[in-house]
């Protein structure tokens, strides 16, 4: 892992974020990959825990944020319209206390518009800041960036906290989408989350969408956005831009 960081072996792939209303790709979530010689990529489930245990997640996170902002600025300079690029923020980064200053420097260095950057934070990660969680989010919002609560429904899911968190979007965890439309309980839960988010003035994104039936169900509920293999797996930057971005705006992501 140290060698991979030192030699720049990590790569970023981009998975489209699709507007449910009109089928347009509005942006992407950036996901880290580690290519393996002569074989498939090393998955995040393999290397992220190791990086967290060793503290190497912090330099990797800084690299991801800088590279996403650099890539986003390049796309904008090329005339490619993109509304948002999303980046995951690990619990270790949240605990570190240096994210705000780091992001301020990266945004200034790259010139990427802060309103086009979205940080995805998990409930469990936020809880690691305890009573300072709300203030931490407010400090990030002061930079002008967007915030999304990731894996919603799998952690604390405290409505009291949710009402106080200055987030812009909820991401419904893929585990609740997987068995739609066969599991009535999951369908009811997703419908409740969408309705609750609407009441709080939040946008909602469903991840892990793999079937047309799932997409149609989410659209009927009034869910705002989706991502998943039904549209595309995560792609290298060049392949993502070739397929989904153009000078006239993001292309249609509806299969």
Structure, described:
The chain is an alpha/beta fold and 255 residues long. It has one domain (2-167, 232-244): TIM Barrel. It is 45% helix and 20% strand. The chain has twelve helices and nine strands. It has an eight-stranded mixed beta barrel, surrounded by four helices. Helix 3 runs parallel beside helix 5 (99-110). The termini are far apart. Mean pLDDT is 90; it is low at 249-255.
Observed structural traits:
TIM Barrel, single chain, alpha/beta, disordered C terminus, 12 helices, about 20% strand, about 260 residues
Q: Can you name the CATH architecture?
A: Alpha-Beta Barrel
* Number of strand elements: 9
Instruction: Please indicate the count of domains.
Output: 1
Measured as a percent range, the helix fraction is 40-55%
Specify the number of helices.
12
Under CATH at level 1, the class stands as Alpha Beta
Rg (C-alpha, Å): 18 Å
Give the strand order of the largest sheet, numbering strands 1, 2, ... along the chain.
Answer: 1-2-3-4-5-6-7-8
Q: Quick check: average pLDDT?
A: 90
Q: Which percent band covers the strand fraction?
A: 15-25%
Through-space gap between termini:
37 Å
Main sheet summary: 8 strands, mixed, barrel
Give the oligomeric state: single chain
CATH superfamily: EAL domain
Q: CATH fold name, please?
A: TIM Barrel
Structural class, by secondary structure, is alpha/beta
Silhouette: globular
- Tell me the series of helices and strands, N- to C-terminal: HEEHHEHHEHHEHEHHEHEEH
**Which residues sit in consecutive blocks of at least 5 with pLDDT less than 50?**
249-255
